[in-house]
Design brief:
alpha+beta; single chain; two-stranded antiparallel sheet; 129 residues; five-stranded antiparallel β-sheet
Length: 129
């Protein structure tokens, strides 16, 4: 048996070891935390966003499909005040610091679209379409 195949079974068993698995999960979480969110969503042709529902005056439900940042069906976004200037991912319109916006609800691990913003004034129109 060639040398490269002789270690396959011990490596497979080692991968199933819970300690090694936990180390792998921890390393993956560390890498995800370091991932830089895409700052300009409006120039990305494959991004598909749809406002699905408004469960409360402070939240909206969004369908987000993007091969770079992920797929989030029924993602809850919460209303807040913009902490920085930016662009609305739905309209491309300008967002100024202090504007009412919706953004993905904070959670762990941080979603790939965590820095995206939807300006509050366009939500009603997005729900109607």
């Amino acid at each position: 048996m060639p040398e490269e195949h002789s270690n396959v079974w011990p490596r497979t068993v080692a991968l199933l070891d819970s300690t090694l698995t936990q180390q792998t999960v921890s390393e993956a979480a560390r890498i995800i935390k370091k991932r830089v969110a895409k700052p300009n969503w409006t120039n990305h042709a494959t991004l598909l966003i749809r406002v699905i529902d408004r469960p409360s005056p402070e939240t909206i439900t969004v369908s987000w499909r993007d091969p770079l940042s992920g797929y989030y069906e029924d993602q809850v976004w919460a209303a807040s005040s913009a902490k920085r200037s930016g662009q609305c991912v739905l309209t491309g319109g300008a967002i100024r610091r202090g504007d009412v916006i919706y953004r993905p609800r904070a959670r762990r691990p941080r979603p790939g679209n965590a820095d995206a913003m939807i300006i509050g004034s366009c939500v009603d129109a997005a729900l109607d379409s």
